[in-house]
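Good day; I would like, with your permission, to put a structural problem before you. A protein sequence and the structure tokens that stand for its backbone fold form the material at issue. I would ask you to consider whether the tokens describe a fold that such a sequence might reasonably adopt. I set the record out below, with my sincere thanks for your time.
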Amino acid sequence: MEDPIDITLDELDASLLEPLLGIHSAPTDAWLADSAANAAERALGALYCVLYVSDAYGRLVAVTPASTPQKASRARLTQVLGVDLPGQKLNPEDRPELSQALADGRAISVSDLSEVFAVALAKKAAKSAQRQLGVTSAVAAPLYWNGESSGLLVLLAGTPITGQLAAAELLGRHIAVALANLREKEASRKHGEVDAVRWVYDERRLMDELGQESRRAKRHDRPLSVLVVRILNLDELQTRYGRFLAERVLRQVAGRLDDAMRDTDFLGASGSDGFGAILVEANADGAHIAEERLLAGLQEMKLPHTDLPNLEIRIGCATATLPQDGEAAEELTAAAEARLQERIITQQDAASA
């Protein structure tokens, strides 16, 4: 975890001490949403508060609060706006102003509620909704820390709060730090089995699982394959854009791979720049099909909430199958790595020819 950010309580009213402590001690995302709403109410007079967190695809997912009062407030928003807030996912790429605010880490005032909620409201309907809610002012503040946004805080108030964008940004930064701490604690609660950067199982757990699956496959004479995936230019990205962007790339690739995997497969971290996937019941042909499925779209992958929409991410991959490429876990991974290196050298030779 990085050193604490240099935010002092002098920048906010001293009465916020208690709600800020609630933010930094929240045990779950749900309680973090409650604490954020409490702080926003006391600091900015917010009537309604919706906390979004970013998923692996850069979409913003609304967090359901924990307490009964906040759930009632959310139900009121859902009823008036006609949108299922608990299941809502926003794609910032569809909202340029919001996407830019996330990339810059700056709070913005919002005139149209459809900018921050996945609902298309006609102008007359929007005014009617705002009257029913008693809302006259809205602000969207990114959860911004260490050069990246991990979510969004949406505040709706009955009095103008657009002149307090700096305070909203500061509140968003506190929530971002608390969210980062929650993620780290979640990883540590799993006894070190989760890679803190990539948010998938670590390499030790991957090899343990591969050992068990390879023994099971040999015992029952069943096929088994392993896939290795490497981000070939990760060091270059880190040198050029910094460690935090490189880590975001790793998490984005992890999310894409995990989403495309079968329930029976297993994904884990491998090395410092990649992943390994155990493909259960997959022979060589099945491994090739799985490789195409898992890597679909990765070559054109974009990193959300940055001003680098065309960031080049070079992916390398290869598979190995039991028993022709090896029988032990280490033999299979070594065979896949050797095959990947052969492909890289072949591509380099072709490029220089």
